[in-house]
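Chapter summary example: a protein plus zinc ion.
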Amino acid sequence: MKESEKPLERQVQKTQRLHFRPGSMTEFPPQLVHGPVTARLENRTTREDVSSSPWSRRVKSHTDDEQLTVAELLEEANRNLKRLHVHGDVAASSVSRREADSCVLSGCLWPRDPDGKVYVPYAVANHYFSEELDVIRGAMDSFSNSTCILFVPRSDQKDFLHIQSLPGCYSYVGRRGGGQLVSLSRRGCLHHGTVQHELLHALGFNHEHRRSDRDQHIRVLLENIMSGHEFNFDKVDTRNQETPYDYSSVMHYGRLAFSRDGSSPTMEAVPDAGAEFGRATRMSRDDVRRIKLLYCSD
Ligand SMILES: [Zn+2]
């Protein structure tokens, strides 16, 4: 019998044996929690008006979604999240909009241990299948393999990432205190680069195309943006750490992001309009470098 055909309870029992511990949900901002998370997510995920979206038509032209870029996967997974207070794939606090990674100046970094490592505790809800947990773990390992960041199962730490499959892929920017939601929907978010993208948000990184110096590299074509989504292109006061603008960052959206008709570009490279951007499927060399500069160097 294939894994997907087994009764869900049996699959869940299997994932629960994988040393992932569900954490408390009590510290989540209430607007982001839609009732208790249960194993029966299939009945909870809502998809509205899927067939009429220009984006949907574009995605369906791909036969293998592993070939899609992280930017494309995120947009597809997050199409209907407006009511969840999600800005693109960045969750917004009801108290304050901590969407600028300048939050690193006011304490949203994860602390570094005296041994030089940065341990980021996490808990994973028990509704993932083992193959899905492997994707999450693989993305976490990619950080520890190349930087001082180590994602560690939560024991009793106060601050931790609580990874759950709610509708959509999104995260807060930086450490915000307590258990903070990272939504990695089983429907569309469980790809290596997509998990890396959300973990980078949780570490304090914002979108590359929102960098304070982006106008020298990207022109935003406001007239082509879907009405109501212009905020996804607002510049933020980012701390760029003297790193070059990175068209191949996994944090860069693509040229058709939030396009009103699915074909009119919303961004173009400048001065070289032919330069490619937003095509990443995993962290770039400069994404790794930025993590090291922010967390691992003295
Ligand atoms: Zn994002």
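Key point: The beta strands are 86-87, 90-91, 118-124, 149-153, 160-164, 169-171, 179-184, 218-220, 267-269.
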